[in-house]
Amino acid sequence: MERLMRPREACQLLGISYSTLLRWIREGKIRAVMTEGGKYRIPYSEIKKYLEKKEETRAVIYARVSSADQKEDLERQINYLTNYATAKGYKVVEVLKDVASGLNTQREGLLKLFKLVEGRSIDVVVITYKDRLTRFGFEYIEEFLSTMGVRIEVVFTEEPKDITQELMEDLISIITSFAGKIYGMRSHKKTLLVQGVKKLMGELSGKNGEAKG
Question: What is the pTM of this model?
Answer without folding.
Answer: 0.58
